[in-house]
Amino acid sequence: MFLILISLTLFQGCSADEGIRIGTPVNRTEISFEMEIKDAESIEALRMIIKEAREIEEPKDFDRKPDTFFTLERRKEGISEMWFYVFYQEDGSSILYNDGANSYFTLSKQETNELRDIIDQ
């Protein structure tokens, strides 16, 4: 019984109605979606990575095309909980951009590797 309660607590908020959609940016307004992840463990890991992301000022001379895009959707509620364009950096870190909030965030090399493990499955 105790193990069941722990399992339910760990995956609280995750359900089949949630999914991570991953795609390639075609241009500033169009994404070509190629994959969806419905694994509860991956969804929670993604939430934790984004929670740890540090907000930064808009990078100077930052006009290149994003490497990938992801969104975490809660279909039952009809919303996207989060969505980010991802720009991988030469040093192994990454910059995330949320166009809805016009906000930039950075992930360390380790956090970027964890993100890649999730969205590059």
Characterize the structure shown.
This protein is an alpha+beta fold and 121 residues long. It has one domain (17-119): Immunoglobulin-like, CATH 2.60.40. 27% of the residues lie in helices and 37% in strands. Strands 2-1-4-5-6-7-3 form a 7-stranded antiparallel β-sheet. The model is unreliable at 1-14 (pLDDT under 50).
Search tags:
3 helices, globular, 121 residues, Immunoglobulin-like
How far is the N terminus from the C terminus?
33 Å
Number of helices: 3
Radius of gyration: 15 Å
Q: State the secondary-structure class.
A: alpha+beta
Q: Could you name the CATH topology?
A: Immunoglobulin-like
Give the SSE string.
HEEHEEEEEH
Largest sheet data:
7 strands, antiparallel
Helix content: 25-40%
**What is the mean predicted local confidence, pLDDT?**
86
Total number of β-strand segments? 7
| General form | globular
Low-confidence segments: 1-14
Strand order of the largest sheet: 2-1-4-5-6-7-3
Annotate the secondary structure layout:
Layout: H1 2-10, E1 18-25, E2 31-37, H2 40-52, E3 54-56, E4 68-74, E5 79-88, E6 94-98, E7 103-107, H3 109-119
Antiparallel strand pairs: 1-2, 1-4, 3-7, 4-5, 5-6, 6-7
Helix pairs in contact: 2-3
At a glance:
This protein has one domain (17-119): Immunoglobulin-like. Strand 6 and strand 7 (103-107) form a beta hairpin.
